[in-house]
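Researcher: Please predict.
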Amino acid sequence: MTAKLFIEKIKSFSASAPTPTASVDAGNSYVDVEKNLPPPAEVEQLPKKMKNKDMSRLSIIMCDQGLFTVYKRLFLLCFFLNIVALALAIAGLFPYAQQRPAVFSIGNILALTLCRSEAFLRFLYWLTVKLLGWPCVPLRVKTAITSFLQCIGGIHSGCGVSSVVWLVFALVLTLYHHENTSYEIIAVASAILALLCFSSLAAFPLVRHLHHNVFERTHRFAGWTALSLLWVFVVLTTGYEPATRSYDLFVARKLVSRQELWLTFAITFFIVLPWTTVRRVPVSATAPSGHAAIIKFAGGVKAGLLGRISRSPLSEWHAFGIISDGKEEHMMLAGSVGDFTRRLVAEPPRHLWVRGLHFAGLPYLVHMYSRVVLVATGSGICVFLSFLLQPCASDVCVVWVTKGVEHNFGREIKEMMSGHPKGKVIVHDTAVAGRPNVAEMAVEAARTWNAEVVVVTSNPQGSRDVVAACRKAGIAAFGPIWDS
């Protein structure tokens, strides 16, 4: 039987299956669902590759999230502004850009660096919550800022492509006026251009999601090499004397007045800063089942922050949500979904490399709202548990759809979800109740909770469905995007 027929059969089965009735048990806040509904065994037995054949992750990334999303609008805006400036420079209407195109290329590199700097974004998210976290701030302003911050990767991508365009323009001018430059400068600029193009191609979704390790290593090592060559480029262009076709040995006195120097210094600072916090630390790792690993670290962490861990810091890093009561320790819940996480489950480590600077993402912006519904599936619950364990200005309701809570995630996680006020925590165990319509659950929970916003963490299709259903119902909702 083909995958398409299998999926159609599953959909017809789901449509004809009776809808279970649910009631909340105030004692442990679990959903108690009628147990006479048989689990869709055919879904469980269907291989993952077959289930995802007709609706691949890439199709959701490229099309189903929208052809004109905030991310793509930010990309186009950055690229358009750069192209306008470039056109004016070519037409002779922007003399400064025509004379110093390298400054615009380096400026774009600084902008894209800031959009991925964990230190800069941590400060930016903190400042946003402080300024907009007041009840008097209109909800539309909060959701607009949330959309912008979540899609700031569009600026990163737009500036990345623009930096390549400006560098091409600079090279063309250099070759046209080759008598005013040296072969060394042309060679270094060409090498930087090649590395930037290589990094941009590796970041394309087709490569990034199908070969993530290739993307990460290419971006890291090509980026570091390009940065080193950028320093060489700045020194050479500052010290070269066209009249004598030689280099000034006392170039330092000229460098301090060059914008290229300070832009390159800022880029270097923000790239190096996170690496100064890298440490190899002892951890306590356990695997309650073959589906997930729980890794514990020393030190409390504020709700909404995320962390990166690695076994080999120069090879690959992986981001996880952090569970913490804000006091003595924090933990990460790693679902077994890839090579790295499967190894965490099969071979629990005693030490891991970590970045001491935890970074902020969409979950951190929960602090900006008064009432929020948090929807998670599977191990995605880890990014939301801290909001239940430590005092928080936001009043949250957590909806968790998963399979075999205690069996797959252990008693400790189950106890964290228990003992909360009625209606604050809703856990739907698919091993008992079958697969629900998560989008409908989110909408119903948001209406019951009178939520300002819904935040979901799930697979691309699940997140898209929840966000679409909530927005159709007039409820602001946010979930992971492809460049999260």
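Model: Confidence is low (pLDDT under 50) at residues 1-55.
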